[in-house]
Amino acid sequence: PELQYPERLNCAVELLDKWVDEGKGDRTCLISPTETLTYAELQARVNRIANVLTRRLGMVPGGRVLLRSANTPMMVAAYFAVLKAGGVVVATMPLLRAKELAYPIQKAKIDLALCDVRLAEEMEKAKTQAPELQRIVYWGGGDDTLEAMMADEPDTFEACDTASDDVCLIGFTSGTTGVPKGTMHFHRDMMAICDAYAMNVLRPIESDRFIGSPPLAFTFGLGGLVLFPMRVGASTVLLEAAPPDKLLAAIREFKATVSFTAPTAYRAMVDMLQPGDVDSLRKCVSAGEALPKATWDAWHEATGMTLLDGIGATELLHIFIGSPEEEVRPGATGKPVPGYEAKVIGDDGNTLPAGQIGRLAVRGPTGCRYIADERQTDYVVDGWNVTGDTYLMDEDGYFWYQARSDDMIVSSGYNIAGPEVEGALLTHPAVAFCGVVGSPDRERGQIVKAYIQLKDGYTGSPELAVELQTHVKNEVAPYKYPRAIAFVDALPRTETGKLKRVTLREIARAEAAESVSQSKA
Ligand code: 3UK
Fold it and tell me: In sequence order, which residues have a C-beta less than 8 Å from that of residue 275 and are 6 or more positions away?
């Protein structure tokens, strides 16, 4: 694909103003339960906010602005206003606490924030912890609101003449391991993910209506719910919180055609599905963590649809491996997105032949640029982005996820990938969700331990545990079976839908220590 961009480029102009200039300003752009905005209406709102930012709040090109909100039309408007004015967006997950907010503020040296007033409490606390932050402007109620300032500003604004490789976004990784890392992306990167992944793999059309659950502060949500629809002049449904039941109801209510959410959400929706619920859908994308084949099968059986798996990362902005519908191989993540190359490398950095397990490395139009972080040289080696994921490429060039490299369980010298065991457990009718981690063991180093959330109508018992162990032994190599099984009501998850393996491992460690001290007593 042609992923060359002119030297001067402002992505807000390309994704938003373009449609108004082409006479399509009255097309619907944003739909939320409370308001609907056309492209022209969004543009007017963006322009007013851009005027507020530059004329009242002292934002200059390159200035970093913290944005803090659930997925709402105002969030999108604020986002595009910063882009159009040549600023740098630092969006934060709605559920972050003050301490977690203070870190990006200090790391990215942010002095200005725009925030939904409903999230004011943690925002104000963060301000006391991060003195860099000089000014917070709220929308949605209170005094001196953003809306009040907007009302005094014109609804026209001349876009900042940015370079295509000016930074426009700093995305912070969710930091499930270690301190979060800020990743910088350019105006052209925002276009490149549309033109590489969306245009070649997803292939949206103007009449599409997107929907999904990931927060816009997570680049999965930004691309899937904002950039991709706007690249083709389509519309998008913004939901403030979209657990599976709400998402399913909204797909039906708004007749959405393209969905973006995590694998567990598709799994949960299968069990709630009523006839007609997803008749409007034509494409469904799963990303954020591995899509178990059992979930792919269940969705396919319930809806007849081909789930599109794709691996993305904050470091690469969006999905870089994932196949279009007609090339999907259930259980595999897919092939590299056109424009990207991927390979599996060994510990020495050399490329491994097909069929061997190693670390996934990728290069393409987008890539990792950490702000002030020595881990940059670990992630980018000889121009290749070395992910933290263990993969296998088959003879046909499909990439098969194994585990995150630091999540491999080593038991009696065997390497066991937790997700493979999870995949086996998920094919048992009693299992709704599960997480498999290593638990410390004096004899074996680690043993495989499975935390299992059962489907409604099942209760945990020693007999069921044995049945599940036997089931796993029949599905995968028997030495991988979970020697320990715990039934739980829920599994710990991040706001981005990932299983918190670190938390599960801590629980497993505590439980192991407990049982050792009990056996001594
Ligand atoms: C894991 C997957 C297996 C993998 C993301 C789509 O998840 C996103 O970004 P993050 O920085 O995490 C990256 C890591 O998540 N992962 C993501 N997708 C898959 N593992 N199969 C998948 N399909 O460990 C990866 O290294 O939070 C996803 C688009 C944009 C994103 N930022």
Answer: none
